[in-house]
Amino acid sequence: MLRMSRLTDYGTLVLSSMARGPESLHSAADVASRVRLAPPTVSKILKLLARAGLVTSVRGVQGGYVLARPPGQITAADIIDALEGPVALTECSIEHNQCELESVCNVGGAWQRVNVSIRRALQDITLDQLVASGRQPLPRIKLDGALPLSQKLHN
What we know:
- The chain has a two-stranded antiparallel sheet.
- The protein has helices at 6-19, 28-35, 39-51, 76-84, 91-94, 108-123, 127-133, 149-154; strands at residues 55-58, 64-67.
- It is globular, with a radius of gyration of 19 Å.
- It is built from 8 helices and 2 strands, in the order H-H-H-E-E-H-H-H-H-H.
- Strand 1 (55-58) and strand 2 form a beta hairpin.
């Protein structure tokens, strides 16, 4: 199963909270209170987001963090890259010549195309859109043919 880490999930929550006041200065403690996460977790996320250039840190007594770009210019790909690293389904999706099986593999090109498609989809979703979609009910998606892992192991 492909799944982003809890840290990235929390990071998206932190950014979405900040996006509601995109030009405002947000202290880590205030953000932690709004999103109901532990302050050390929020501080860690904000530092990673600052290192990636998604937020800017302002030092001092009245300091805090502000979005480095408008929410419409921050993409889901930017967020995942900042907290997870680049999206890569397989070793060969990261960099050429990283997999010892590359010379005999006949499916790597297909996986790279899938990876590019996922990347494009993530680049097409902005923080503004993530925030707006959070106010709508979750769609019900049926994944045909997908069995829960527990069933797969017993079949």
